[in-house]
Design brief:
The chain is an alpha/beta fold. The chain has six helices and eight strands, in the order βαβαβαβαβαββαβ. Strands 3-2-1-4-5-6-7-8 form an eight-stranded mixed β-sheet, with helices on both faces. α2 links the parallel β2 (29-36) and β3.
């Protein structure tokens, strides 16, 4: 039986689109819900157009009460009998109170070769460090930011002419290949890391 996947995002949802379009045919998972903290997120409009259920949980009314925000997300997820959560550009840090019950069933894509450059501004930091290669990582989500077990990585060379934006564009191409490949394996119970050339 196919695993039911919820995809959480905050923006245009290009990784969500890559995941959704991969979940066809004999795929072991299917998209059950796209949830955003922003009603104007482009990914929400796209998911609706595909006939996928959507939910919006605006973080702003909750102010600094992250527990209340996360409780509302959890309440929105439950009716959909979600098996796997994929974070795809969800720009809110989730606390241990939310992550722990979902641990082992929640994955994220991060635009660096973890453990390098956890958090934000990964491409600028890679360029400032003089790195010869950059890339992206899919990992299990744990209570510690960007520290969960690595499920897959893809690499790109850093060019002498690169800016953070040009590097981000090339890494994003690899994200759209890596994330669907890892999700397929993860939904089948395969947690072995996948390293793309």
């Amino acid at each position: 039986m196919s695993k039911r996947v919820a995809i959480l995002l905050s923006g245009g949802g290009s990784n969500m689109r890559a995941l959704v379009t991969s979940m066809t045919g004999e795929h072991p998972a299917r998209p059950a819900l796209v949830l955003s903290n922003r009603a104007d997120a482009g990914g929400i409009a796209w998911a609706k157009a595909q006939g996928i259920a959507t939910e919006v949980v605006d973080h702003r009314p909750h102010g600094s009460d992250r527990a209340a925000f996360e409780a509302e997300i959890d309440a929105r997820l439950r009716p959909y009998a979600i098996d796997i959560i994929c974070l795809a550009g969800f720009m809110r840090v989730l606390t241990a109170g939310f992550v722990t019950p979902w641990q082992g069933r929640m994955i994220n894509i991060h635009p660096s070769l973890l453990p390098k450059y956890r958090g934000l501004h990964t491409h600028a930091r890679a360029l400032e460090a003089g790195d010869q290669e950059a890339g992206c990582t899919v990992h299990e989500v744990t209570a510690e930011l960007d520290e969960g077990p690595i499920l897959g990585q893809a690499r790109v060379p850093v060019l002498a002419t690169d800016t953070p934006d040009t590097l981000a564009e090339r890494v994003l191409v690899q994200e759209h290949i890596l994330y669907p490949a890892v999700l397929r394996r993860f939904a089948q119970g395969n947690r072995a890391p996948l390293y793309l050339p």
